[in-house]
Specification:
Layout (H helix, E strand, L loop, with lengths): L10 H13 L12 H11 L4 H14 L3 H6 L2 H8 L6 H16 L8 H5 L5 H13 L8 H10 L9 H14 L5 H14 L18 H5 L16 E11 L2 E6 L10 E2 L2 E2 L5 H9 L5 E4 L3 E4 L4 E10 L12 E5 L10 H28 L1
Parallel strand pairs: 1-7
Antiparallel strand pairs: 1-2, 1-4, 2-3, 2-8, 5-7, 6-7
Helix pairs in contact: 1-11, 2-3, 2-8, 8-11, 9-11
Length: 370
Amino acid sequence: MPRPRKRADAKLAQALLPWRRAHGRHDLPWQRRRTPYRVWVSEIMLQQTQVATVIPYYRRFLARFPGVRALADAPLDEVLHLWSGLGYYARARNLHRAARLIRDKYHGRFPQKFEQVAALPGIGCSTAGAILALARGERHAILDGNVKRVLTRYHAVQGWPGEKSTENRLWALAERHTPRTNVAAYTQAIMDLGATLCTRTKPRCDDCPLSSGCRAHALGRETAFPSPSPKKTQPVRRTCMLLVTCNGRVLLERRPPAGIWGGLWSLPEIPPSADVADWCRKEFGAAPSAQQNWPVLRHTFSHFHLDIEPLRLEIAADTRIGDNADRRWVRLSNEPALGLAAPVKKLLQQLRILQEETRHDAHGQMRLAG
């Protein structure tokens, strides 16, 4: 829901706007031709992800999907493929769902009203505010991670920003400091400040245009704000991923639409304690002709570690093999144009290198024998 309007306090804007003109970021890809669609894609990609990481993904994504209809009409597999490696794949699924809603409900035109934008999948109040402020110059407060950090330090706000009471106070401050004019410039300025000077671990206070009024700086406790989230020990989960190969192909399976890596293609998984031969007999009608254990690969999510035990299996060509909507054999020689999770891409690359080495060794032995 939109935040209540209050009288604007122009002090932050008066300090930030000259700083942005001289030191802000002006050459980011989404700052050229700022349409709601282009800003929306950038804001979704920038959630939980650094600008330097996002830029090449953004350029590839916009080249393939230059507008809402192109994104809405594309199959989800293609969207996830272009997102592969960027992580937090629910963002891509929500982006695709929202594009289809815009196509079907709003005739392909980005919604005009704040409430309509905020209600789209994966957006919410802060992202909606950023889209409308940056693309249309409308006055809406934002509260992304960078802005939270700046406001928390400037006002020495106690409490973890994830707590509702602290978040509500920060929203009130964000609304108060958002000016009536130059909204797009101010919004970009406060995000730039948080990203480049008011950073999490090494804030550059000597270069900051807000340092003279910053309470955390006056206290000499800049890095004490924001308060850290409550410490939790991350649990460790284990799984066994099967690299099932046959005649230069590897077996992939589509994951369920919800949960980790939802909708992506992955390797078949079994519990580490499961009997691999039994699994192969059930799936292919025969035990594997060869198998090889690879070193454990750890992948860390926001709330847990996943220890992956890769197991390479070779299946005879005359076993039951078939593709369907959720299972596919793909050639190892080419990376499939499918959405793949980062550890799966890594394992497939290792398998591809191993196959190439085996082929070269075989050719070398044939030449020697000749």
